[in-house]
Each structure stands twice: as structure tokens, then as C-alpha cells.
Design a protein that fits this description.
The complex is a heterodimer of chains A (437) and B (124).
Chain A (H helix, E strand, L loop, with lengths): L1 H84 L3 E6 L4 E4 L1 H7 L3 H4 L4 H4 L2 E3 L8 H9 L3 E2 L4 E4 L5 E12 L5 E10 L1 H36 L8 H32 L7 E3 L1 H18 L2 E6 L8 E3 L1 H17 L6 E9 L5 E7 L21 H5 L8 H11 L3 E7 L3 E9 L8
Parallel strand pairs in A: 9-11
Antiparallel strand pairs in A: 1-2, 1-7, 3-5, 4-6, 5-6, 6-7, 8-10, 11-12, 12-14, 13-14
Helix pairs in contact in A: 6-7, 7-11, 8-9, 9-11
Chain B lengths: L5 E5 L3 H13 L3 E5 L2 H11 L3 E5 L7 H10 L8 E5 L4 H9 L4 E4 L5 H12 L1
Parallel strand pairs in B: 1-2, 1-3, 3-4, 4-5
Helix pairs in contact in B: 2-3
The chains are: A alpha+beta (437), B alpha/beta (124).
Chain lengths: 437, 124
Amino acid sequence: MNDINQELERLRFDYEEKLTWHKAKSKIVEKLLEEKIRENGLQIQTRVIYLENMEKAVLNILEDARELEKNLGKERDRIRIILYGIGDGVFVVDNNLKITLWNKIAEEISGFSARDVLNKKYDEILKFIDEKTSGINDAFIKSAMATGQIQQMSSHTLLIRKDGSRIAIADSCAPLKNKNGDIIGCVVIFRDATKEKEIDRMKTEFVSIASHQLRTPLTAIKLSVEMLADADTGKLNAGQKNYLNNIQQSAQSMVSLVNDLLNISRLETGKIQLNLKPTDLKEIINKILKNISIIGAAHNCKINFNAIPDPMPEIITDPDLIRQAIHNLINNAIQYSSPGGNLIDVAINRAEDNDHLIISVKDTGIGIPEDARKRIFEKFFRAENAIKAKVNGTGLGLYIVKMIIENLGGNVWFDSAIGAGTAFYIKIPIKSPPPHD
Amino acid sequence: MNTKNKILLAEDDRAISRVYAGGLTHSGFEVTVAANGAEVLEKIRADRPDLVLLDLMMPIKNGFEVLEEMRKDNDLKDIPVIILSNLGQESDMERSKALGITDYLVKSDLSMKELIERVRAHFN
């Protein structure tokens, strides 16, 4: 009996111990759980607050983005309205040469509506042609896209309107670039140039008519002077001869001016018919030098002509025009020579590309001042030192040279140093016919 | 017995006309003047000159029209003509040569001396 009680007692003790231990453990677990729950709760709360903040931030950003989009939209609309409303024709072409904007004036000038042209490649609908050759001339667009620089339309560009008629247009094409500087298209601006071409033509025609009209009285003056100077009409005293001389010189100045003006008006209207034929430059220059030798001597100038390429290539050009241009350069070299002796060197050389000849006229004269260099080829422009040198000039000589050489498909440039001299260079093609403007 | 050679001078500018006429008369020619194309034809028919100095730019009828009418008229077609032109345009030269002229002179390059030389050369 005692054993059983003892066993019971032991079991009870065990049980109570276990119970206490369990209770304690429960309490700990409970505590741990409580803490865990509390922790999680805090974390969740923190998380929730964090997420709530994030949500607010995102909503703000969304709102800013919408605001930005609205502004950009407004901005884009504003630009479109401006482009559309510009008083000139405007169209925009993308990288694939498709038209993406076509404004009202473009419609009016061309006759094509936006619907006709939008999203089509511009060269399918718009034909820009050269007035002289009637060939397609939209190089200005392709050039702007390729070089990334603004290109001016050539001055003889015509656009074929929807109804087939032609209209003279002018202006330019500017490339559009993105942030990285890549070309993504271009914007072309053009206007109806009919009126300005008409005005230009009338101006040139006026000069031409006026110059023609002037020839007759000038001829009469020259003839009368000739008769007065003739002994048969009566002998003249020294004073009379003097005044007569004055009249003769003045009349000759006028004749030169009139001839220059007529020349220019013909060159400008392109009315000059180029008389292209095989030309002996050497002979032309020799003739000029012979004719100008008296004036050259009077100005104390020694003129050398050499450095001729051997063999001299036969060149195809207009002999009258090239003679005029070279004559003007040599005459300038003489007229603007420094007081005292002067050396003028005329030479012909082959250009590096072998397709051109370079004619150079180098002098040791007064030179062209820095501030005059940009304007020296302008019509009627004379540099200050040229005027001070008391040379009777019209300011047309170099303009004529430039017009002639450009008509012949070449170009003209110069180097100069004040007091040391000037060198002018003319480069002309040997055989190719001059390209159109 | 030398009758003077008769020249008809067709030139609409009075100043030039006076100088040419004076110089030619002084050199021994008999000179009649006409100031427009119609007058030229009238005087050619009336006087039968030995030479016509013909300006191209004239009122009423210009030099080309006068030339054309002369060539169509049997009485006038053999009268020699020297053109006095204001310009040296190739096209004008071609056109007048086609109508049969003796010489083509450009007034602005022409001195009195040279004119007289050319006229004398023609008659010799």
C-alpha cells in the first residue's frame, strides 16, 4: 500500500511540477507571443505608414506628370499654332522625308491642302524645280539633312502648284536636332517670291534702259569734241584745248560707267549669252598687257607675265568675258599701285584638281584694308584708301569680275596686306561647261 | 566732172546727225538727212542716194523694217546700205547681214575720222 501511495505521490509531484513548468512555459510563450505580436504590429504599422506615404508621393508625381503633359501639350499646341500661323509657308519633314506639318500659307502658296501632303514623302508631292533648266532642284532639303546646317534655296527655285502652274519661291531649310544633336528632320520656310523677282527685274531693266539712253548723247559729245579738236573747224588756244580735254576725259568716264552698267545688267539678268569656245588665255593676256602698257608706264608699273603651265591646256570659256575680268584685275593693280615703282605679276597655273586653271594677278600696291575686305566685291563699293588715293573708280570693277567668273563656273578670291600689296586669284574650269546657279 | 556722191543719213538723234552730216559734207559728200524710218523711205525714193547710212533705232519704222522694205522694192534693193548701230549685238549683226548690207558700224566706238574713212573706202 505504501508503494502505491509513494508512486501516486511521486506522480502527483511530477505532474504538479510539469504543470508548473508548463504554466511557466505558457506564460513565457504567451509573453513571447505577445511581444512578437506587438513587434509585428509595429512593423505592420510602420509599413502601412510607409506605404501610405509612398502612395501620397506617387499621387503627387502623377499629378505633376499630368500637369507637365498638359503644359507640354499646350506648348506643342502653341508652337503648332505659331508655325501654322506664320506669314510664310512652313512645312516640317521627318527623318523619312515625310511631311509632318503643313501650315496655312503653305496651302495657299502651293494649292496643296494639309490632307494632300501630310504623312507623304515630300518629293512625291512637292516638285521644286530650277527656273532655268526645269530640272528638280530640292538639294537644299537633302543638303540640310545631310550637313546639319541651314541651307538657302537657290534663287531660281520654282514650285509646281497643285494646278500645274509654277510659282517663284525663296527661303531656306533648317535641320531639326534632338538632345543628342542627331538630325531628326528639317523645317522648310518659303514665301511667294514673284513680286520681289519682278521688282528685281524692273530694277535691272531700268538700269539697262537708262544706260542705253545715255549712250546717244555721250556719242554726240565725243563726236563734237573730236570736231572741235580738228584744225579744220578752227584753231584752238591753249585754254580752249584744256577745257576740251576736260570734256573728253569726263565723257570717257561716263562712257566707261555706262558700259559697265550695261554689262552688269546683262550679267544680272542672265541675258548674257555665253559664247563658249576654245580660248587662248596666253594670247588674251598678252593683248591686255599690250593695250594697258601706256597706262602701266604712266603709273610706274612693271608687269611680268609668266609661270605658264607647259603645255598650256586649251580651255573652253567665253573669251570676251574672261578678257574683261582679267583686264579689270590688271587695271586695278595699276590704278592702286603704291607711289614709286611697282611690280605686277600675272601668272597662270594649273589647279591641284587638274580640272581648273588659276589666273593670279599680284601687285605691290596700297592693299585692301581689313574692314573693306568683306565688301570689296560689292556693287559701287570703294575702300577708303582707294578713294583717298584719288583714283577715278566706279566701284564696279570687282563686282563685274565676280559676276563674270561666277557665270563661267569659277570663283575669285584674294589676299592682301596694307602697304604691301594684293593678290587676286581667278579659278576657272578648263573644259566643263559652267554649272547653272 | 565729179558729181558728188549722194549720201542719205538716217539718224534720229539731232546732235549726232548734225555732226555726221557736217563732217561728211566737209569731206566732199552731198548729204541728206532723215529722222525716222518713214522719212528715210520717202527720201530714198525721191533722191536715189548712192549710199544710205542707216541707224537701227528710229521712230515710226526702225532700221530693220526700212531694210526689209528696201529689199522687197525692185527700185531700191540694190542701193548699198551701211548700218550705224548703237549696240554691237551679234543678233542684230546677223539679222542685218541676212538682209544684205555693205558694212556694220557701232556708233559708240566710231570716231568721225573712222566714219569718213569707211565711207570713202566704200566709194573706192
